[in-house]
Amino acid sequence: MLKIFLVEDESIVREGLRDNMPWEQYGYQFVGEASDGEMALPLIQKTKPDVLLTDIKMPFMDGLSLSRIVHQEFPDMKIIIISGYDDFEYARQAISVGVEQYLLKPITRANLQKVLTDLKVKIETEQEQRKYQEKYQDESREYEQFSRTNFFVKVFEGRMPVQDIYEEAAKLSLKINAPCYNLLMFNLQEKRAGENMGFESEDFARKREELLHYFVRYPENLVFRWNVNTYGVLIKGNVEQMQELADKYLENVERICQPTEDFLDWYAAVGEPVERLSLLAECYSKVNHLFAYRFLMPHVHIFTKEVTEDYMPQREGSKIGDIDYSKMDPELFKDFLLRGSREDIPEFVDSYLLTINEALQSTMFQNYLVLHVRFVTLAYVESIGGDKEEFMAEAGGQIQDKNLSVEEIPRYIRNMLYKAIELRDRESDNQSKRVLKKALDYIEENYSQESFSLNSVAGEVNVSANYFSAIFSQAMQMTFIEYVTQKRMDKAKKLLKQTEKHSGDIALEVGYKDPHYFSFVFKKTQGCTPREYRAGQKN
């Protein structure tokens, strides 16, 4: 039932309308009255009616002034003005402030009934459309949305001119403009050594959603997915705000994640503010450099410029005897091979070598380091089922691992890591392809089922919804929802073209329980209603 509020300075007219109109019979609940706009405004703000019925000429605050304020504060509220003045100028002003109807006194019950009935239909239609719009947006909203991720990859890798950034952001409905920017990256992984990373516990999924929802709450943030386990937050604000925002966000990442360290590996890094979109690539480069330290300092969770500077050795006396051998831990390379990506390799290697820079002048230490990398890498290759000799023929063929110069060592280490991770990812890709093939077959057979969802498909192929969504978007170049909606729309168009079935029956057949929502999605994606599409095909 819709709510209606009455404002009228003539008490006889006000009481007559209040007591003699069968409001509930017309689908309305009478929620209040006032004798002028000044008295009415706080009551309207409290009751939030769907319809405001107000006289135009009143003391203290007239109906036009009241309507102007109400329309600004409650743009969806419908306003009906009643007036004893058949004056074009009044009507023109009423239209300019968003008034829905302009009724002349004396008002008859039949006349008011017709206006209220028509308005009720309009309000309910608009509410239904808003509900469908919200549902559609909820279904379409995915942090891992491919188009958003692809946009930020291009921006941060410096592959997009500033003008293109603005244009692409507008297409994606991203408010990109701001006085200042910074970038925060965080990585979450579950401690499930030796298990299929396609699975995740409910506790882990809940913690990830809690962290994502924390950032989404703030309008100055643009949250996006970088890869399966890493997310980015583009922070926007005034120059003087940026340090405060960065500190606050890092504190809350720690607050949310720290209590769950028994099952969660988490890391966060924040860059340095920049005042131009064209400098975002530079900002990302610095964050990525800091983020690579998570492999060198696995017990540290938050990385800033100050944290990593404390980790670096002092230049004086940094000889072989002064090395902190915890930084030579074989687990560092092993952990990187397990969790790092190809994109992380340059920063990881450069940061690692920087910590032992002076010691590299020793030939004995150079040989030790090369053998250290070789043995760790080969052990990892063997653990994932690779052939060691074949691997060395491919990886070591370009650079021999004997008598390397200081300049050749970084290239050697990078090459070994690249080849090992390439082998790891190749097997992972094969596994992902098998999962995807099974999922696509299942989608083909079940997308028209009402209970069909991302979770049901992920369950069918025995991986987490988060993991499945990520590999699906990467492989198909669209999100799961976009793919399923496209299949449903294609089938709906075929049925509209080849059969005489009612659109409500077609909606059920392609997976939509609500035929009105089906029509909404059809028009949203195809640019016309199902009826218009059918008529166009016939013509």
TL;DR?
With 539 residues, the chain is of the alpha/beta class.
Helical stretch tally: 23
Could you name the CATH homologous superfamily of the largest domain?
A: Reverse transcriptase/Diguanylate cyclase domain
Fraction of residues in β-strands: 5-15%
Instruction: List the domain count as a whole number.
Output: 4
Summarize model confidence as the mean pLDDT. Answer: 84
Q: The CATH topology of the largest domain is what? A: Alpha-Beta Plaits
Number of strands: 10
The structure class reads alpha/beta
Q: What gross morphology would you assign?
A: elongated
How much helix is in the residues? 55-70%
Can you identify the CATH class of the largest domain? Alpha Beta
- The Rg value, from CA coordinates, equals 32 Å
Largest sheet: spatial strand order: 2-1-3-4-5
> Mind summarizing the main beta sheet?
5 strands, parallel
Spans where pLDDT lies below 50 across 5 or more residues:
none
Q: What is the name of the CATH architecture of the largest domain?
A: 2-Layer Sandwich
Distance between the termini: 42 Å
